UniProtKB/TrEMBL annotation:
EC number: 3.1.11.6
GO molecular function: exodeoxyribonuclease VII activity
PANTHER family for the chain: EXODEOXYRIBONUCLEASE 7 SMALL SUBUNIT
Source organism of this protein record: Thioalkalicoccus limnaeus
Protein name, as recorded: Exodeoxyribonuclease 7 small subunit
Role this protein plays: Bidirectionally degrades single-stranded DNA into large acid-insoluble oligonucleotides, which are then degraded further into small acid-soluble oligonucleotides.
Family (UniProt): Belongs to the XseB family.
Superkingdom assignment: Bacteria
Reaction(s) catalysed by this chain's protein: Exonucleolytic cleavage in either 5'- to 3'- or 3'- to 5'-direction to yield nucleoside 5'-phosphates
Quaternary organization: Heterooligomer composed of large and small subunits.
Entry annotated with the keyword Cell inner membrane: no
UniProt-annotated location(s): Cytoplasm
Lineage: Bacteria, Pseudomonadati, Pseudomonadota, Gammaproteobacteria, Chromatiales
Keyword Cytoplasm assigned: yes
Main location: cytoplasm
Length: 85
């Protein structure tokens, strides 16, 4: 978005989850505060859908990575459990 009130409709998602989420929050705030035309509202809604999908994909990817890291591996060496405090 080049200006504060412009809606970015190029379809590109910000580079990170945090950027996508921040833009989505700003977009929702703008929709709630401003009196937008129908076209502006539709463009903002479309952008919001794109950002929501980007955030959902990022969360699913993170969840998948966590599952991989926390699943017991068949090849992992067993380590003794220590009760020393």
């Amino acid at each position: 978005m080049t200006e504060t009130n412009a809606v970015d409709t190029d379809g590109a998602s910000p580079a990170t989850f945090e950027e996508s989420l921040a833009e989505l929050e700003a977009l929702v705030d703008r929709l709630e505060r401003e009196d937008l035309t129908l076209e502006e509202s539709l463009a903002a809604y479309a952008r919001g859908v794109t950002l929501t999908r980007a955030c959902q994909t990022a969360l699913e990817t993170a969840e998948h990575r966590i599952r991989i890291l926390t699943e017991p591996s068949v090849d992992a060496p067993l380590e003794p459990f220590s009760t020393d405090d």
